[in-house]
Structures are given as structure tokens and as C-alpha cells.
Here is the input.
Amino acid sequence: MYRRLLESYPAEADRYDEMLEAGGRLRPHWRTLIDQLEGLSPEILRRRAREVREAIAADGVTYNVYADPQGANRPWELDLLPQIISADEWQTLSAAVVQRARLLNAVLADLYGPQTLLSEGLLPPALVFGQHGYLWPCRGIEPPAGIHLHLYAIDLARSPDGHWWVMSDRTQGPSGAGYALQNRQIMSRALPETVRDMHVQSLLKFFHTLHDSLNALAPAGGETPLVVLLTPGPYNETYSEHAFLAHTLGFPLVEGADLMVRGDMVYLKTLSGLRRVHAILRRLDDDYCDPLELRSDSALGIPGLVQAARLGNVLIANSLGSGVLESGALHGFLPAICQRLLGQPLALPAVASWWCGEKPALDYTLANLEQLVIMPAFPSMRMQPVYGHSLNAQSRQRLVDSLLAQPHAYVAQEWVRLSQAPVLSRSGEYRLMSRAVSLRVFVVAAADGSYHVMPGGLTRVAPRQRKDVVSMQQGGASKDVWVLSPVRDEVGDAAAPATAPPEDGDGRQRTLDLIRSTVDISSHAGENLFWMGRYAERCDNLAHLLRATLQRSNDLQGEARETFYQLCEICRGLGIALPAVTATARPTVAALQQALIAAIADPAASVGIAGNLRHLHHCGYQVREHLSLDNWQALNRMPGLTTDSSGPSGVTPAAALHMLNNVIQACVGLAGHALDDMTRDEGWHFLMLGRHIERMTHLATLFGQFLRLPAERQNRTLPWLLESANSVVTYRVRYRRTPEWLPVLHLLVFDVSNPHGIAFQFHMLERYLSDIAEQLGTLSMDTPAHLSAVLREFELQDLSHDSLFVADAHARLVQLMRDAIAGAFSLSDELARHFFTPLNAPVSQGVS
Here is the structure.
């Protein structure tokens, strides 16, 4: 029945196969999937795989690998085929994982409390105190409800006999849960019928539990809890997941610089002042969290955070110091510890491990090196696993010397041949290939201290060239994990979990407080939204300017050539790098065309579209939790709009015009999202302020350069000016005549109803500044009102070319353009001083 897909699938006798039983028979829980895939043609299967890749690109799912050729935007890899686990097997496995979570939480409570494990000899003191993972300043800190591990991940491998073994524990800020949910959402779109027919369990309850637990345990003291997700920043390898989790959970995504400790309380620097933070879900390593008591050279942490936690004023998930358990050397001691702390045998043992700090273990390791994998004993050590069987004589001797010199720094593990699972060929062929896989399972603590396992997880797939090494850093891929249920789970995975906090005895008042509370926009997010607005408008302005200019570069004859040179000089005045046109130096039209194209497609251009699109994407990347999925997808596509495989030098004028059309359409879509797809909160007001400040700057600079032309040149360039200012249609509808000086002047400068006119920018800036002053207070910026008043003093007829007052009025208009430019820069600086660096901001009153 399954000949087509399975006929070339390579099964290996020395490994457990996730899909096939001995003898090549399909395991029962795989039959529905393979049966449905067999019903798809090769073309459909390839299309589904392509849809997965396109969904990853559209959603902006990345895993940043340092020094990777693809840079900071390396796409996440997801195979079309899931890993499937039967309901019966999962029930046994999840119970064992819960036990291990309870055990590790108890170990942390002991190590930072009475330390009976050390005094009774169940753990060697050197193994605990001899590593950087144990944080002495955190001893004695008791977290709310005694929960140290709020989120725990465990890496599992299946041995050839089918048993699961623990490879490693992730106890600091385990990554991957967000990727697991993103994988599920993408797979639900790629194979919706299969997900439904196989009754795959939903993942959403896991995230509901995490959200509700942190809100319930946060020491809020009657206030509505404010929980934040702390990230190292956009250059971290899993920042994409941080942004997705923040969006899913409804928590502000913050960096260390967004938080501060005042009076032993943690506060978030928001646009409206300081708002108390009650809980922190951290993705920052232990020792980087507080430069005052932990790592003094950390620029990522919050000074005073340990003291705030020590006094019980903030919940930190996971608790500081939990990284001590990520040492692989602990595995061999856990069976006895489990019996001591929980009174039961360890249900899920680790791969056989030997800490070389003990002489018998060292002797065994040296005698059996070919059958072992040598790993660092402590997470702070930067070392890749070394497979003893792969070493030549020279490498083996170097390893032996290292083991003898520092035995305590190494742990040996049994070499387990990982199980294999099928992956779809990436070459587009209709066939399955086998790859080694490992499984990461996630556990969350509920508010009552119980642990719950995500019914799924993240399967990591080894790359082709490293069969036994499963690592995302080394180019590995991922799989969605389908845990089957005999009853269809009615809750889908397409929506984010609800974010309403649980009600207590005073639930009605808490509900009213929640409804009345404002959105907490961090100063960092407000600044990025502000610059997102500026860069979006800058790209749009440049695209219209360059399109209007480049369109006039073909078939130039006589006056048209001179006009084109004048237009290029105006572009130079706006900062675009073009060859100068003088009476003695006349660059060729081709040279000017190439310079215009470079301003479109060259990311290195100081004033250009490609570079500004990247800046726009970078700002949007840092405020993903404030954007809808459609908005983010539109933004995520924009950096690729000016990319050409031949590079900027290979772009033709026709191709450049096509790029500009795409950029303009994308900018229109982005503006539509801003107006119709975003909540009118404080962040939105700063986004719009950024757009109008940028448009005012551009129009004033453009018009100021235009006014430098002689009157006869101005008349010839009026159509170009209208196109550059995106006002052609408005002019045609309103005046129904060819462009003339006074109507164009009125439309672009004096008309307060033209969205692309200077007066309109003055008016809108007045309005938004007034709204912000009403919402946030402490604001008195009268620059736009002053500019509007000056503009109203003009008499339009004085600017007619045949007016007696034209010279004076012309000079006043030129000065107004200069004042508008200076006013825009001053306004931007004032906003930054007031809201983006509030080091001495007041503490907000009322409910946080």
C-alpha cells in the first residue's frame, strides 16, 4: 500500500526507527499520515513543503546563528513530516517528565536552602560550588509558592531498544516552546485535514497555564499584575521566539535597559512614567541579570534585581541560579537524590554518565573512550561534544591530556545512537530520507505547584553532514510533534491564549481595574514605533521621488535633458549620492541613472531605499508584539523588495522602476495597517508622530530645493514636483488643468486638507501632540502651532510670479521651509528627551 513513499526509505538496523517496526512495517500511529501522503501527487507534496517555507518566511520565524552566512535572518527550518507519538506512550512519558520537574525543583530548593544533599553526601560540593552556575547571592531567596522552575525543558533521545533517555536538562530560560507553537500553527495550515483526522492534541492549554500561573503568583498586593518577558535583545539567536511568545502571552517584551529598580521594586520605563513590574519571565542567562550582585560587566541586566527578588517584591521565572542544574555531571547522582527527596525511584533516567571529577569515573572514561562522548561538565564551558570513536591517535591523546589536567571539567556519557525519523527530501524529489532526531519536551508549573507537560514539543533533526549531532546552531532542522488523542481536542492552535487574569475573592474589582488600565508601552517600544513610522514614511517619500526622477531619464532631448539635470540636482540637495551637474562637469545620463539605481537597490547607500527598508524592518522586529500577524508579514517582506540576484550594479532602469512600484505599494499597505489595524494607544500616537515629522521634513526639504530653481525652470518641473509629493491625482481631480504655479503651491503648502501637503503636517502634529499631552502630560511643544501661524500670515497672491511682492514673499516662504526642517529635528529631539530616555520618570499612580 505504501510502496511509493517507502520504497527508497533507508532503515538502519542499529537505530530505532520512529516510523517503522522491525521488518519494515508501519507503526500503527503513523498509518493515517502516510496513507494521506500517498494520496497526494508529487506536485502537491512539493507545494505543501513550499508553503511551509513560505509561511516561515512570511511569519519571520528565524533562528540566528552567530557567524552564519545568512546573518541575523536565518530562516527557521521545519520539515513537512511531523514526529508522531501515540497516546499510550505519551501518557507514560509525560508522567516521568513531571516527576523529573518536581525533583529538579526540589533540588534547587535544597541547594539554595538547607543544602541537605551536600551534607548527606548525595552531591559532591565541588560539583555545585565549583561552577559558575551556582549563584551565592541567591542563597536564601524563597520564590512564591516555592516554585523555582516555572518553565522546564528536557532533551530526550531514544535508544535502539526504544527506551527514552535524558540527554540534558534546560532550567534557566529554556527555549523552544514558542517555536513548537509556531510549528503547529504552520503545520495546521499545511496539513489541516491530517491534523484533524489524527486527533492531534492542542498546545494552547500549556500557554494558558503559563500565563495564568505567572499572574497568580506575582506579588501584586492587590494590583493588576504586570508581567514582562525579558530578552537579551534582537541579536540573540532565539529573539524571534521571544517576540512571538510576548505576543502570544500578552506580555510586554523588554530588555534590561527598559527596567530599573527603585526602592527595591522593579519598574518598567513606559511612555507614561514608571510602572511597577510584578513578574519577569526571563530569557536572559542567570549571571547577566544583575550587574550589581552577579556579573559586573553585564550590560543586559538590571542593577538591584537580586535584592528585589530577595525581598519578595518581584517573581523571576525561572528563579535566579537555576542554571546550576544544567550540568550534565549531575545526572549520575539523581537516582539516589530522587529516592531521598521524593521517596520513589527515578522514572526517567539519563544516559549513563560519569563525572570525571571522581577518580573511578575518570579511570572508566580513559579505559572506554571509544564508546563514550566527552562533554563539558558545566554550561559555562564553550565546548562541543567529542565522540571518542571519531578521534584519530593525535586527537585522542590531546583529549586524554585534557582529562588528566582538569578531570572535574568533563563528563563522559554513553554514546547513544539516536533514533531516526523520516524527512522529506529538500531537493524536491518525491522520497523520504532518514535523519537522527531528538525530542525536547516542555513542562510548565501551575499556580498550585503542580506540573503540566505540553502535549507535543520540538523535535530537532540532525543535518546531513553531522549524523549524530542534533543542534540548531550547526544547521539542524525541526519537526512538529504530534501527540495523538483518542478523543478529538476541540481547541485549535491557530489563536493566541486568552490573557484575562484569574479572579480571586475580589474578582469584580480586579476586572474593573483590568478594563480601566492602560496599555503599558515601554519607552523602548515607543521609540521603535516612532522610528518605524519615520522609516516607513522615508521609504515612501524616497520611492516617489526616485520614481518620478528615473522615469524622466529616457529619450531626453533638448530642454528635457536640462530639466532632468535640474531634477538630479534637487535629488542631490535631498542627500542622494548623485554626480554633480555643473557648467563644466556634465555627467552622462547613464551615470546618473546608475546612481539613481544605487539609491534604490544598494543597502550601503547613505540615503537610499534598501538601507532604510532594513532599518524599518529592524524597528518593526523589536515591536512585533504590537503588530498583527498581517501587519508583521507585510513588514517582513519589505527588505526583499529591492533585492536582485545580480546585485545593485546589475539592476536595469526598468527593473528599478518595478522595484519602486513594489515599494510604494508595500508602503501604502503598511500605512493602511497603521490606520486600520492598530489600537489607538500611546505607541500608535508615536508611530503617527514619526510619520508626520518625516513627511514634514521631506516636503519642506523638497519644496525648499524646488524654490531655488529659476521661475521658468519651476514651471517645467511642476508635474515632477506633484509626482514626488504624491499629489498628482488630488491636483487633477481638484483643478482639472495642467499644473500651474499657484494651484500647485496652494495644494502642496497651504491646503490643510491635502494629506501630502505641508499645512496638513503642521495640523496633524498639533493634534497628536495635544493627544499625547492629554494622555501622558508634561508636554509643551508649540513648534507645529507656531509654523501654522506663520503659514496663515501669507497672502497667496503675493507669491504669484508677476506679483510686486514676490521677492519678499518668496524669501519668507524659503525661511518657513528652513524653520519647518529645524522644527522637525527639534521636535524629534524633544520627544526623545521626554519619553524615550526617562531616567528620572515619575512613578505612575493607581493600578499598574
Remarks:
- The mean pLDDT is 89.
